[in-house]
Structure formats: C-alpha cells, structure tokens
Amino acid sequence: MDFTAILAEKGRKDGLYFNSGQLAQVTKYYELLLRGNKVMNLTAITGPEEASVKACD
C-alpha cells in the first residue's frame, strides 16, 4: 500500500477526512522529506506507515 492510501485509511480511522488536494500536498511533503533525509538526517521516519501515523497525530 502506498503512502497516500495509508494516510487516507489512517485518517478515516481517526475521524479525519482528506480531500484529494490535501492528500496530494501531504504526499509531496512526504516524498520531499524522504529525498532530503537521504542527504541529511532530518527524521527517523523512513516508511509510509510511520509517516502516516505522524501526519494524523
């Protein structure tokens, strides 16, 4: 399952509903975060499940 699907599912479980624009923005942020994290240690988050949990908290 990809990040967008995981985020949407996790959000629904927590009572959060994202429109397609919001999902696209958060997915882009996640992709940029992973890309930047390869160059410098920005976060310990490396997988879509971890990131979706943090995004919904």
Structural class: mainly alpha
Euclidean distance between termini CA atoms: 20 Å
| Average pLDDT | 83
Q: Uncertain segments of ≥5 residues (pLDDT<50)?
A: none
Element order, helices and strands?
HHH
What's the overall geometry? globular
| Radius of gyration from the alpha-carbon trace, in angstroms | 11 Å
Total count of helical runs of at least 4 residues: 3
| Helix proportion range | over 70%
Biggest pleated sheet: none
E-strand count? 0
Please state roughly what percent of the residues sit in beta strands, choosing from under 5%, 5-15%, 15-25%, 25-35%, 35-45% or over 45%: under 5%
Describe the structure concisely.
The chain has 57 residues and is mainly α. The protein has helices spanning 3-13, 20-39, 48-56. Helices cover 70% and strands 0% of the residues.
Task: Explain this structure.
- This protein is mainly alpha-helical and 57 residues long.
- The protein has 3 helices and no strands.
- Helix 1 packs across helix 2 (20-39) and helix 1 (3-13) packs parallel to helix 3 (48-56).
- The chain is globular.
Primary descriptors:
single chain; 57 residues; mainly alpha; 3 helices; globular
List the helices and strands and how they pair.
Elements lengths: L2 H11 L6 H20 L8 H9 L1
Helix pairs in contact: 1-2, 1-3
